[in-house]
């Protein structure tokens, strides 16, 4: 009893072949889109890798690039098979490859779903990497003379300007770190000596932020220094001042950027991994195989998804797997009569 | 003596028609590209319209958009003519429209050349417009509470950060303007009172710049205030400090940006001019070849195509005579009136003559 049989006449077969050809070529375009999204994601991760301590995982973009290329190849092959399917001579040479091709499609769809799942799950990894990386970035902001960290200041400044954020959680992260290098501090000055002596580690801490935290939309010229001291500035109350510097933390800003990118890529993959093309190809090949009179193209034929019902097909598969496992074992009943002879 | 005659067999005519059809569709595509370039240039100019005083420079993108659209239409007509050219029943209806087409195509080529020339000629006007616009922007930087100027500060700040520039000519422009609003100045402070009294206009001038002038690539955290005072900062020399602030002026930065944009459209415009000229010449050859073929006894035979029927001088003479006759159309010609009355008498005599032999 075939599973979901459908009767096909010539016109239906032709329509199915044409529709399937269109679907395959659209899938090639989607494959190209996935490939370019993978490259875009990889470039974005590279650009921000300094913020993530050069520790970020490139698994998702690499997988996307691979899946995009595979999608192009698999769907182009499928399109070619559909194109040749209505010509019996050309179709005959594709026939032996069809079963492995359908298995490959199955595996490929599973890979697509795995990639979509990774897109959603890896967001946690990105969050943790960002938290750690930004903490170190702020710590190394002043080290513009240390090889390997010379550009940390520039990168962090440009990131804070571009993403409109300040610090890791918020601007107070800058109060806990010395972000002015000792080269620019006058150690003979009393104020400097007081500040350095005011904490255990001898760091020059102040309630100020770098200029990149400034909000251009503030009506007032930016107040960067003595942020918690109301009397240092005219008509200033640090508790109600909101527009002066960016209030959002960079971890949240960067995370929301990456997470929206990864979520939309995941949704696109789920949309692309519809199994419509697999089902259609199965119908088409079975319809062409069951033509009673191969010389007469007008004859009717049956198409189906599975030759027997679902349960029976599974039973057959299990039996096959068991026999595969037993090929190496000696079959006792068979050997004994030979030995006797 | 025809200009640049070429012999065309039927085969060659067919090839010419096919090649021209492809070429005209390519020209349609390029016309679309020119239109898009014009739109892009216009949006870029409109984005910074707040720091520009006049809109003279908008002539360049406007012409590009117009020419792009006209080129799409013109070359589509050319492709239709190609399709009809090998059908003798449908080609004659294009006889008069083709003359108009040639005129329009020539005008388009001239406009494109004019655009290239204008984009260089208007550079001075652009700089002037930016100079005035930026000067006003810097002057009104502090007026964040005046309706109509609230966003001047944000515009100038974002401009300086995006184009990596400071001030109009350089950062010293900020020293001559009060860019801190009076709302944020403590008039009881001695320092503020001193500064206000130090100049005639009672402005609070300081040797400081806004934060948007800061250069992120500087190894040192940005120094914005007391820039001319070496003692105000440790290990600081005003004359030799280069990386602290952006050294370029915003007028120079913006002019360079727009000139680069217009120069990069240069190759595209030049290739459109070349394509349009080749479509024009090929269509003229096709038209003359097909017309001479239709006049022949054997329409499938060889014919000649040319650019001008007579030489250049003779064609110009002919055009002059045609233009003059058109101008004289309204005038009454006294010679013609006498001549016509004589002809009428001669006809009357002829009519009277035949009856006499009969009778």
Attribute tags:
heterodimer, A: 341 residues, mainly alpha, two-stranded antiparallel sheet, B: 359 residues, 60% helix, disordered C terminus
Overview of this protein structure:
The complex is a heterodimer of chains A (341) and B (359). In chain A, strands 1-2 form a two-stranded antiparallel sheet. With 341 residues, chain A is mostly helical. The two termini of chain A are 45 Å apart. The C terminus of chain A is likely disordered. Chain A has nine helices and two strands, in the order E-H-H-H-H-H-H-H-E-H-H. Chain B is mainly α. Chain B has eleven helices and two strands. In chain B, helix 1 runs antiparallel to helix 8, helix 2 runs parallel beside helix 8 and helix 3 packs antiparallel against helix 8. Chain B is elongated and about 105 Å long. Chain B starts with 5 loop residues before the first strand and ends with a helix. Chains A and B meet through helix 4 of A and helix 5 of B.
- The neighbouring-strand order within the major sheet of chain A is 1-2
Number of strands of chain B: 2
Which class do the helix and strand fractions of chain A yield? mainly alpha
Rg from Cα of chain B: 35 Å
Measured by DSSP, the beta-strand proportion of chain A falls in under 5%
Biggest interchain interface, per-side counts? A-B, 30 and 30 residues
- SS field, number of helical segments of chain A: 9
Query: How many distinct helices of chain B?
Result: 11
**What is the element string of chain A, with H for helices and E for strands?**
EHHHHHHHEHH
List the helices and strands and how they pair.
The complex is a heterodimer of chains A (341) and B (359).
Chain A: E1 6-8, H1 10-47, H2 59-84, H3 88-139, H4 152-163, H5 190-197, H6 250-272, H7 276-289, E2 301-303, H8 310-326, H9 332-340
Antiparallel strand pairs in A: 1-2
Helix pairs in contact in A: 1-2, 1-6, 1-7, 2-3, 3-6, 3-7
Chain B: E1 6-8, H1 10-47, H2 59-85, H3 95-121, H4 123-139, H5 152-163, H6 190-197, H7 250-264, H8 266-295, E2 303-305, H9 312-328, H10 334-352, H11 355-358
Antiparallel strand pairs in B: 1-2
């Amino acid at each position: 009893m075939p599973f979901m049989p459908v009767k096909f006449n010539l016109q239906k077969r032709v329509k199915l072949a044409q529709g399937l050809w269109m679907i395959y070529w659209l899938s090639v375009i989607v494959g190209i889109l996935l490939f370019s999204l993978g490259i875009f994601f990889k470039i974005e991760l590279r650009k921000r890798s300094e913020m993530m301590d050069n520790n970020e995982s490139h698994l998702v973009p690499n997988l996307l690039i691979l899946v995009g290329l595979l999608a192009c190849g698999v769907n182009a092959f499928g399109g070619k098979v559909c194109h040749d399917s209505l010509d019996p001579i050309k179709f005959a040479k594709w026939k032996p490859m069809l079963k492995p091709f359908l298995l490959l499609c199955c595996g490929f769809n599973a890979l697509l779903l795995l990639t979509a799942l990774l897109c959603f799950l890896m967001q946690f990894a990105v969050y943790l990497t960002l938290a750690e990386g930004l903490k170190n970035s702020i710590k190394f902001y002043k080290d513009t003379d240390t090889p390997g960290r010379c550009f940390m200041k520039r990168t962090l400044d440009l990131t804070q300007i571009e993403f409109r954020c300040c610090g890791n959680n918020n601007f107070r992260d800058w109060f806990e770190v010395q972000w002015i290098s000792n080269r620019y501090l006058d150690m003979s000055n009393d104020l400097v000596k007081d500040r350095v002596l005011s904490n255990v580690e001898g760091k020059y801490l102040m309630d100020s932020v770098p200029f990149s935290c400034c909000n251009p939309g503030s009506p007032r010229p930016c107040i960067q220094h003595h942020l918690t001291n109301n009397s240092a500035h005219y008509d200033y109350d640090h508790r109600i001042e909101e527009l002066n510097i960016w209030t959002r933390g960079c971890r949240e800003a960067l995370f929301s950027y990456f997470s929206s990118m990864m979520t939309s890529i995941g949704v696109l993959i789920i949309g692309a991994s519809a199994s419509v093309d697999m089902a259609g190809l199965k119908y088409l090949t079975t319809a062409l195989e069951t033509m009673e009179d191969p010389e007469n193209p007008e004859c009717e034929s049956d198409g189906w998804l599975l030759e027997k019902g679902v349960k029976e097909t599974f039973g057959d598969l299990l039996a096959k797997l068991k026999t595969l496992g037993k090929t190496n074992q000696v079959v006792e009943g068979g050997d004994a009569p030979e030995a006797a002879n | 003596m025809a200009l640049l005659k070429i012999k065309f067999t039927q085969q060659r005519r067919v090839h010419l028609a096919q090649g021209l059809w492809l070429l005209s569709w390519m020209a349609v595509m390029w016309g679309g590209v020119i239109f898009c370039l014009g739109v892009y240039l216009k949006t870029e100019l409109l984005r910074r319209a707040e720091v520009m005083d006049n809109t003279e420079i908008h002539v360049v993108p406007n012409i590009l958009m117009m020419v792009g659209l006209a080129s799409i239409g013109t070359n589509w007509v050319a492709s239709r003519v190609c399709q009809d050219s090998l059908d003798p029943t449908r080609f004659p209806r294009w006889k008069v429209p083709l003359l108009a087409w040639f005129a329009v195509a020539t005008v388009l080529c001239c406009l494109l050349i004019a655009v290239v020339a204008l984009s260089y000629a208007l550079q001075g006007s652009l700089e002037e417009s930016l100079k005035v616009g930026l000067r006003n922007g810097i002057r009104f930087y502090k007026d964040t509470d005046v309706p109509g100027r609230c966003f001047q500060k944000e515009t100038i700040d974002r401009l300086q950060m995006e184009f990596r520039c400071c001030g109009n000519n350089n950062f010293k422009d900020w020293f001559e303007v009060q860019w801190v609003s009076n709302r944020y100045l403590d008039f009881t402070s001695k320092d503020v009172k001193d500064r206000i009294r130090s100049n005639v206009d009672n402005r609070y001038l300081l040797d400081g710049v806004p934060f948007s002038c800061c250069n992120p690539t500087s190894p040192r955290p940005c120094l914005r205030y007391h820039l001319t005072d070496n003692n105000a900062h440790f290990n600081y020399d005003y004359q030799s400090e280069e990386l602290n602030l952006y050294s370029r002026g915003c007028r120079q930065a913006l002019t360079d940006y727009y000139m680069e944009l217009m120069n990069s459209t240069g190759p595209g415009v030049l290739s459109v001019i070349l394509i349009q000229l080749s479509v024009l010449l090929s269509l003229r050859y096709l038209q003359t070849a097909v017309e001479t073929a239709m006049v022949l006894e054997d329409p499938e035979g060889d014919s000649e195509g040319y650019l001008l029927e007579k030489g250049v001088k003779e064609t110009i003479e002919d055009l002059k005579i045609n233009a003059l006759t058109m101008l004289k159309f309204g005038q009454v010609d006294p010679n013609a009136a006498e001549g016509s009355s004589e002809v009428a008498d001669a006809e009357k005599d002829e009519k009277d003559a035949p009856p006499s032999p009969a009778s």
